[in-house]
Amino acid sequence: MGGVEHEDPPSKRVKVSSEESESFSNSSSLREPARCSLSDSMARPLESRGDDEVVGVKGVVKKVELVRIIAEALYSLGYEKTGAHLEEESGIPLHSAVVNLFMQQIIDGKWDESVATIHKIGLMDENIVKLASFVILEQKFFELLDGEKVMDALKTLRTEIAPLGVHTNRLHELSSLIVSPSQTAIDGTSDQRLRIRSRKKLLEELKTLLPSTVMIPEKRLVRLVEQALDLQRDACRFHNSLVEEMSLLTDHQCGRDHIPSQTLQILEEHSNEVWFLQFSHNGEYLASSSSDCLVIIWEVKVDGRISLKHRLSGHQKPVSYISWSPDDHQLLTCGVEEAVRRWDTASGECLHIYEKSGLGLINCAWAPDGRRIFCGVTDKSICMWDLEGKEVECWKGQKSIRISDLGISSDGKQLITVCKETMISLFGWESNSEKFIEEDHTIISFALSKDNRFLLVSLSNQELHLWSIDGSVILVAKYRGHKRSRLVVRSCFGGLEQAFIASGSEDSQVYIWHRVSGELILTLPGHSGAVNCVSWNPANPHMLASASDDRTIRIWGINQVNMTQNGRHSNGVCYCNGAT
Amino acid sequence: MDVDPRQWENIDVNDKDIHNIVLSYLVHNCFKDTMESFVSCAGIEQPADHLEDMEKRKRIFHSALDGDALKAIELTEEFTPDLLENNKDLHFDLLSLHFAKLICLRKCTEALGFAQLKLTPFGTMQKYVEKIEDFMSLLAYEEPEKSPMFHLLSLEYRQRVADNLNREILAHANLPRYSAAERLIQQATVVRQSLNQEFGKDGNQLFSLKDFLER
């Protein structure tokens, strides 16, 4: 309650209605029993003070309720005098006199009287009265036990609590407590339920039990404000930064400037079209691959600059797909219809080459435990290997066609591949069960969300379809705007809580949509060739990378004040041998 | 599947076997006088002198059945000193009988004191905690017979505890825990039911001893 010690009875708040304001005195809590007769008439709260008066433009906010929650807020914040003044001036009491009496009795520990008072507060059904009485008498019981008045406690239990007929299990627990009040659980931790809570806490619990018209819930106004902020945040289409920014003074509306939209770096290490790139799970590295058969591991520095760490050469064919291990210590790369190589991130060394004689591999993925890998093969089957290269299993049949996307579902139990031109299979590789996503157009590529619960499918009709795959398979949204007709163009999720969808496009731009509303919010020009792939840094919602046929990678970020003049920072020159 | 009753004719039953069955039943249930009378009528040998023990066992059994648990415990301790020591479950059950009795007599203060002294020490073991709670909950009611835990005050419960005690004492003296008659009935029932399950197409009623005997 905003700094008020729980020992002090909140004396100033418990007071008579405004009708008594003449005799309003600063000191005290209710003492004269004579008030009780008045309190009877006050048992029906708040009649004739213009109960129906409304405030606000929409006419839905009742004045009486508003004033009451403001008064509660004032008391919560510790402004006793102001709260009292408000009640007086507005003529609207926070609580009726009966309720005030009740609250005072609780604080004073006058249990029997408070139980009697509860019955006098109208508007409540039998059951609530019983539940509230139970809670009050339970407190009485504990205080008696604490004061070593065991027989009195027993008497209370038998004659007052048991007859209520509610909470039978708790009743039995209380019985046991009489016998062994210091009973501790087997593992030695002392039992929570034994500690007497303060009377203040009791009052708080009663507030949740009794209807809110009788007793205003604690901090109601603050809760309403929090709800409003939540709604504002949900409605904000550009929301990409953390919540500290929210102010009560204006409606929350992020501007575009929180979405990466400025080119911060251009990376020019590749000598041919850059086909694929992906940030590591921890956002500290970026891996890119190109039709020049090279894979590059880049390091994301603390200040956001990207620098080259390793050049991984070895593939004889263009590298079309990369997969980071779950712990980011290793990398799988796939040469088109060639082999899959496993690399160590720290040293850049090639740890293993996976091949199938006579056949080529077309995609690769890690099992969630990081100890096995899956690869799609040109004969449309999928193989699972352990790290040493021993083939553990092979699923034949039309499992994976010549499209280099392979994913694992969130529970690690389903392999996601494109099994036919217009169909994605979610294949339970242990259970051998299969679910399908059917589309009307040819599937070009897909991407999984970070939590692996959503699938973003790119189609030949230039649409992106968002599917929920957690449990049953449902189409959730569609995104349009980008251009794709000849090439494989990839998309991804990104931003704070994956609130955005980004995609490459054949018109050399990066497209960004708001995921929930489906609205296209940004297009980013800059590349001079088709943008093949995008990846949003999972650890930094303000960093986006794009890979293009113009042989460069662009790093996009938010508008920074001290950017260099032309926004370019050429990276390849200083680090020619991959040292960081 | 029903066994053809005529098949029974092919089985010879020895009188001696039947005597033993009856005898075992009488010994198990401490029917000392009946046993003596039966032995002399049937002209068989008196079994090795368990007579005195039977008498003691009978008193223990009846004390427990009447709810006079403290007496039962005292007699048991006298008769077989280590039995309760080694059989905590039984010990607890007997003590709880006494508690139940105090509750029935509405002697709440005494019951509370007794519980604190005798029952709570068992609370260190998890398996007793729930039982203790169940019994303690009787304290909360002015009319415990109408409470959800009323079965703890019932004759059936006392019967069960007394039976257990009896069996343990027998076991301690290296005598069978179950009388022969009990075992035979159990065996016949189990066999019958198991056959029913295996060949179980027709009607499949569970074996009913009563029906069987009335045939």
From TrEMBL, chain A:
What keywords were assigned to this record?
Answer: Cytoplasm, Repeat, WD repeat
**Domain named CTLH: residues:** 95-152
Cellular compartment(s): Cytoplasm
Transcription regulation: present as a keyword of the record? Answer: no
Q: Where is the composition biased (Basic and acidic residues)?
A: 1-11
Where are the annotated segments for Disordered?
A: 1-44
Assembly notes: Interacts with RANBPM.
Q: What is the protein name for this chain? A: Transducin family protein/WD-40 repeat family protein
User: To which species is this protein native?
Assistant: Forsythia ovata
Lineage of the species this protein comes from: Eukaryota, Viridiplantae, Streptophyta, Embryophyta, Tracheophyta
From TrEMBL, chain B:
Q: Which domain of life is it from?
A: Eukaryota
InterPro entries documented for this protein = CRA_dom, CTLH/CRA, CTLH_C, LisH, Ubq-SigPath_Reg
Pfam families tied to this protein? CTLH
Q: Which SMART domains match?
A: CRA (SM00757), CTLH (SM00668)
Q: Where is the CTLH domain?
A: 53-110
The cross-references to PANTHER family, in alphabetical order and at most eight, read:
RAN BINDING PROTEIN 9-RELATED
What is this protein's record name? LisH and RanBPM domains containing protein
